[in-house]
Design goal:
globular; eight-stranded parallel sheet; single chain; alpha/beta; ornithine cyclodeaminase, domain 1
Length: 296
């Protein structure tokens, strides 16, 4: 059983970003079988799996999410290959691969020299969002907003120690955090948009990875509708699970055909300007990407 220390030692964030990018390219090329994620008990239990057909390798992950519990998320990941099996802490893999996919999308869509990052949320997924963006862009300023000011201050202090060359501050609100950002990462379980479209600069890239149920939404639907490019991990998954995208499509603010899957965007990079969005609900190909490095 590989624990958090084993996973971090084996897979630095730069390697995770590269592995997840490669996995999405394979996904776009039809080299994966990925069943729809199973969600039970109002999203408190999740089961995800994927099979990479060229290598006949598979990954299966189970997660239990209970608000107020410490830790909030518990789970196990199992990697199967002809050579054997690896069992790992699913929580560490999940935070690492979720950060990594934001790194992939940021590298694709954010301005090349973007250095100002806003982070909304201070939970389990938050720190790896910063690590991943910092792996692909020269982040020099970080603004953090969390509902609990004390927790946000402690969290920001830890990140400041981890990235001594990065100036950090605790924002007074989500709108304050994003007001001059070039990159925004949303990592919350919010059921209402975190900010208004007008709070954002004219040129900004936004990653949203926290919401995974139709009742959740981190982004205003108007942002989804007016962004120059909306990239998603998988259209079918997002239209089943991402409240902000479901709202935008159902109300006619954006056509389903306007949503671009990440793998396809990597194969044919879109022309971007103004505001861009990446919305992820998480795919098992990301878990496979990290598990492959652990199993190798």
């Amino acid at each position: 059983m590989l624990d958090a220390h084993d996973i971090r030692k084996a897979v630095p964030m730069t390697a995770a970003v590269d592995a997840v990018r490669e996995a999405f390219l394979d996904f776009a090329a039809g080299r994966f079988v990925v069943p729809q994620r199973w969600s039970f008990a109002d999203g408190t239990t999740l089961v995800m799996s994927a099979c990479h057909t060229p290598s006949s390798t598979t990954v299966v992950k189970t997660l239990s999410l209970v608000a107020g519990r410490t830790p909030t998320i518990l789970g196990t990941l199992v990697w199967n290959a002809a050579e054997g099996q690896v069992v790992a802490d699913a929580i560490e893999v999940t935070t690492l691969r979720t950060g990594a996919v934001s790194g992939v999308a940021t590298d694709l869509l954010a301005p090349a020299g973007a250095s100002r990052l806003a982070l909304l949320g201070t939970g389990a997924q938050a720190a790896d969002q910063v690590r991943a963006v910092a792996a692909v862009r020269p982040v020099r300023r970080l603004a953090v907003f969390g509902r609990d000011r004390t927790r946000a201050e402690a969290f920001t202090a830890r990140l400041g120690a981890e990235f001594p060359g990065m100036t950090t501050r605790v924002a007074t609100s989500a709108s304050d955090a994003v007001s001059d950002a070039e990159i925004v990462c949303c990592a919350t379980s919010s059921r209402a948009p975190l900010f208004a479209v007008d709070d954002l600069p004219d040129r900004v890239h936004v990653n949203a990875i926290g919401s995974y149920l139709p009742s959740m939404r981190e982004l205003p639907a108007e942002l989804v509708a007016t962004a120059s490019c909306v990239v998603v991990d998988q259209v079918d998954a997002v239209l089943k699970e991402a409240g902000e995208v479901i709202d935008a499509v159902d109300t006619g603010l954006i056509e389903r055909a306007a949503l671009v899957e990440l793998g396809q965007a990597l194969r044919t990079p879109p022309t971007v300007s103004g505001r861009t969005v990446f919305k992820s609900v998480g795919l098992a190909v990301q878990d496979w990407a990290i598990a492959r490095l652990l199993g190798g």
